[in-house]
Amino acid sequence: MTFRINSRADQFLLAADRLQAHAQKTQSEISSGIRVSAASDAPADVGTILGLQNRLARSVQSRSNITRYQAEVDASELALTKAVELLDKAKVLATTAGSDLPTVKRSTLAGQVEELLQQMVALAGTNSDGRFVFSGANDQRAPYTTDLQQPNGTLRQAVIFPARQVETVDGITLPQPLTADAVFDATDAQGATAPSNVFAALNRLRLALVHDNVGEVRAASDNLTAGAAHLNEKLAYYGNLQNRLEDASNLAAKFELNWQQTLSELRDTDIAAAAVDLTQTRTHLDATYGAQAQRPAVSLFDYLK
Q1: Residues 113, 90: contact at Cβ < 8 Å?
Q2: What pLDDT sits at residue 222?
């Protein structure tokens, strides 16, 4: 049989180690601000904590996507506002050119309309943070370029795929942004140029002025009116989309605040309580060392008496 020479010394060491470990852990919690850093710290709360962290990560990513999408939508809305202004200028030119006044120089007006067409193509290529907002998923290339040899005065530079979709924090898919072909280069169900086709209306007016054809000028003016109505309809779409994005961003921020508060209650350190605990632990540790120091020394000879 084996006997311990001093079991009290073992008990002292064990107690001192426990108090020292507790003090170190408490100090670490105060320094980091995190009370639960391992599953063993709060086994019952670990699942909830991990779930909240995942929700927060998804929400932060969702809000980041929404913020970027919102910038693109704002850029699109501004471009469409300018596009309507360009058509208004074209209509003024068409009205002037459609008059019977002998002083009207339609060839000169044709050059002005050509400039308006070029500006419209540039608006179709609006860029936001490195993305062409009307190019759909193929957003690294402007969708159109000016080409006066084409029927609409423009040439599509790349295939336009549907735009990426963005989800809200609660999993709802937001409406997609519009693409350049739907906004500026409208076609009917059979794929033919629609009366509201903005590019076609401007180029029709340009050609009518080049050929000094008053009848065609007046017909092109009707197309410009249809194109303006079409653009205003798309403007309303973007206005509603802006409201949806603002609501989605506010909802995500609200969810994040609630989740962060709950996560903080479960995981974060109560600094005041931890400071009191640390002080008490150190006091107990000092008392333990003091009590041990007051104990009389015992040698092997004392056990042999």
Answers
A1: yes
A2: 95
Write out the two tokens for 210: 């080049």
Q: Tally helices (H) and strands (E) across the chain.
A: 8, 4
**Domain for residue 91, yes or no?**
yes
- Enter the pTM of the model: 0.73
21-35, 54-68, 135-149, 157-171: which has the minimum mean pLDDT? 21-35
> In CATH, what number is assigned to the domain containing residue 188?
1.20.1330.10
User: Is residue 291 included in any domain, yes or no?
Assistant: no
Is residue 69, in this structure, part of any structural domain at all? Answer: yes
What are the residues facing 132 on neighbouring strands? 127
d(Cα 193, Cα 225) in Å, to the nearest integer? 15
Half-sphere exposure at residue 212, Cβ-oriented, CA atoms within 13 angstroms? 8
- Quote the distance between the C-alpha of residue 96 and its chain's center: 46
Q: How far apart are CA 52 and CA 16, in angstroms?
A: 37
Question: Rounded CA gap, 197 and 151, in Å?
Answer: 12
Integer CA distances (angstroms), 124 to 12, 174, 288, in order: 80, 22, 79
CA 292 vs. chain centroid, Å, equals: 63
The band of 158, judged by pLDDT with boundaries at 50, 70 and 90, is confident
- Sequence-separated contacts (24+) of 101-106 with Cβ below 8 Å: 106/208, 106/209, 106/210, 106/212, 106/217
Instruction: State CA 244 to chain mean position distance.
Output: 13
- Kindly tell me if the per-residue pLDDT of 202 is higher than 90: yes
**Contact indicator for 120, 153 with CB cutoff of 8 Å:** no
9 inside domain = no
User: How many Å apart are CA 142 and CA 154, to the nearest integer?
Assistant: 12
- Whole domain around residue 81: which residue ranges? 50-262
Q: How many domains does the chain have?
A: 1
